[in-house]
Amino acid sequence: MTDHNQPPSVGGGLPEPVVRRKRVNAAWIWLVPAVAALVGLSLVINAWRQQGPAINISFQTAQGLESGKTVVKYKDVVIGKVTNIRLSQDHTKVIVKVDLDKSAAGIAVSDSRFWVVRPRIGLGGVSGIDTLLSGSFIGVDVGKSSQPQTDFVGLENPPSVLHDSRGKSYILHSSDLGSLDIGSPIYFRRIQVGRVASYKLDEDGKGVTMQIFVDSPYDRFVSTESRFWNASGVDVSISADGLKLNTQSLATVLAGGVAFNDAPGPHPSEKPVPENTTFTLFDTQANAMAPPDGEPSYIRMRFDQPVRGLTVDSPVEFRGINFGRVVSIRMDYDEKTNKFPIYVGALIYPERLGRAHSKLQAIAKSHGDNDMSQIVTTMVAQGLRAQAKVGNLLTGQLYISLDIVPNAPKLTEYDPNARPLEIPTIPGSFDKLQEQMAQIVDKLDKIPFDAIGNNLNHTLADLDTTIKQLNGDVLPAFKNTLKGANQTLGTANNALSADSPLQQNLSSTMQELQRMARSLRVLTDYLNTQPSSLIRGRAKDAPPVSNGSPSTAQPQQGSKP
Amino acid sequence: MAALPRAHELGLIGCHVCGQICRDTQVDHAACPRCGSSLHRRKPYSAARTWALLIAAFIFYIPANVLPIMRTVSLGDVDDNTILSGVVELWVKGSPDLAVIVFTASIVVPMLKFLVMSTLLLSAHRGTSWARRQRAMLYRLVEFIGYWSMLDVFVVALLTALVQFGFFSQVEPLPGVVYFGLTVILTMLASQSFDPRLIWDCKDEDD
Questions:
Q1: Which of A19, A161, A199, B38 is most exposed, with the fewest beta carbons within 10 Å of its own?
Q2: Chain A residues lying within 8 Å of B63, measured CB to CB
Q3: What is the pTM of this model?
Q4: Looking at the structure, do residues A223 and A261 belong to the same domain, yes or no?
Q5: Do residue A129 and residue A192 come from a single domain?
Q6: Which residue of B has its CA nearest to A37?
Q7: Which residue of B6, B16, B55, B79 is the best one to mutate when testing the A interface, meaning the one whose CB has the most A CBs within 10 A?
Q8: Considering the domain boundaries, does residue A235 fall inside one?
């Protein structure tokens, strides 16, 4: 108990505490965990609200994908992240689970497409180079559908046409794909205006159908008159203008491309075409720009001559207009004549003949002739013949030329109802030339050169004796004749010399003549001055004619009275 | 052996700051007459404050571990790491010693703090006299390692400041590090607000 009495005494000399202001209520400390809880809760709520749908995308390979790191980007904005990568049940594919952001929930619709953006180096260019360092990501093309979907099949290659690209797609038909591929460029006047979106083999396997996409605003240049051609590679042509090398761009030389343009000429009915219109893809620009071929017809020709130089695709021309091509060359055996005729089949496009075809067609229609066989028969009767002509003298390439030959030999057997339509042939110009040459040679052969030689020999022998005769007899006689002639000429010379009497007589005669002419002149002068003397006779003191001047006239007058 | 008298038994109260001993006049809001700091026998509401701060620290510790604390960008390769994934990465990439250090500083120490403080609080609440010396040692340990708990935060802050090479290499802090820092601060405050004398406020049976 002494312990209990001690304390007051212990604290006796000690100071007392002072009273200070009131302290903050200690219960406020619970605000701290409350705030922490609020923050934590807000984090949870935020995370929950950010949580978008989870989708599964299947890919062939997970190359470049990394769980927890690979992001999904749309327009380069991150909209989700890969959270899990696993193999599919049958181990053939990779299933990538992606958590999308809440804001990107609308992306998971049925026609959205996903692909892995990796660095790609192709002939047409390089893409995704930024992913070399940053790693691959998954690209999205957001579809327009409103139907949600959670399982997608990823594309192995980026789509060439995105849903939000503006423009129109069209269909092209071609016999083969050429060097085109998805993404191959489409050129209009050498400006790239679109690309090949997809291609597939036709159901019957006889062609390729391509879908192309032309960007806005170039899509309005695709019209009813547009022609598409394969602009791949280099087009080399040699013409009268020289060598021409034609390409669309360097890229098309390597990677291929399609070009289109309007067909030449005015197009009054030209108008833009709706989406997904079908066009034909031509091999070359020349083919594309040619007038439309229309439906081809098949004709057959039988040649009895060899057709070396004629190949499949050799042109068929009518009066110089190319309107078809050879498609087959086959040999046959004719047991009756024991010959080997060659049957040449050709596809012809009558519409390439232009108005001639349309007029003939109209005439045929009016006669109730639907397949124009009657017209052809008439023309054959008029001399329509096919010839294998030489197109190139250097290479000996042949082409088939159809023409009306006026003096063609009449045909004994021609069946107008035979199908395919058969066109009779005549030997080509070169063959004809050969034939004529052979005939000439034959004729030359028939000339009896030996007999002619013998005759000539005899004639020459005769000539020899004649000449000998000439030398012996005729020449001495000729010499004598010449001598006589010489003497005659000497005589003539003497007669004509200066001192001959003939010459002297001639000289005196000439002098006499001179004197006579002088007196004649005096007479005429006198008569001129005194014309009256003719009647009155000569005046007595007539002054000399030479003094007849005005100065002497005075004394004349003076003397007269 | 008879227990020594307690200060409240002697009617005395000591100043925590300057050590001045006064007579306990039992008034509210008493202050030291010498240095002016508030006088109290035990830290007021020590257990409640410690509990509150400890709970808050624990709440923040969840996002600190779930959220990434650091983003490393190296040659365009973006890598977000939480504390645990960083430890795993260090271990996998061949630095187990560093992994152990980071794991100790970031996982073991905070967890140890939570456990120790909870144990101390619970045992003090029950007033048991079980292992009082050991408990006092635990408390001193917690106080001591409190300074070192900010290791992760310092690492992130230093790296962020130093590694700024644009595209080639870059380090950015992420929200997780803020929560981790808050956790560390709150645990330190909690251990501070705990009054170790509570360990000894029980019947002196074993002394």
A1: A19
A2: 39-40, 43
A3: 0.52
A4: yes
A5: no
A6: B59
A7: B55
A8: yes
pLDDT over 70, % of chain B: 95
Res A136: pLDDT = 85
Neighbouring residues of A257: CB distance < 8 A, sequence distance ≥ 6: A180, A184, A185, A186, A187, A230, A231, A232, A248, A249, A251
Max avg pLDDT among A20-24, A170-174, A552-556, B154-158: A170-174
Question: Is the CB of residue A441 less than 8 Å away from at least one CB of chain B?
Answer: no
Q: What is the pLDDT of residue A542?
A: 55
Where is A54: in which H helix or E strand?
Answer: strand A51-59
Domain ranges (residues) in chain B: 1-41, 45-200
Chain A residue with Cα closest to B55: A33
CATH class, domain B45-200, is mainly alpha
ipTM > 0.90 for the complex: no
CB-nearest partner of B76 from A16, A22, A134:
A134
CB within 8 Å: A19 and B29: yes
- Which residue of A1, A5, A16, A136 to mutate against B (max B Cβ within 10 Å)? A16
- Nearest-5° Cα angle at B89, B84 to B90: 100
Let me know: does B63 contact B176? Beta carbons within 8 Å.
yes
Contact criterion met (CB below 8 Å) for A422 and A343: no
The answer to whether position A324 is within a domain reads: yes
Query: Is A39 at the interface with chain B, CB within 8 A?
Result: yes
Q: Which domain holds residue A362?
A: 297-427
B108 touches A: beta carbon within 8 Å: no
Tokens of residue A121, six digits: 């180096």
Read off the pLDDT band of A560 (50, 70, 90).
very low
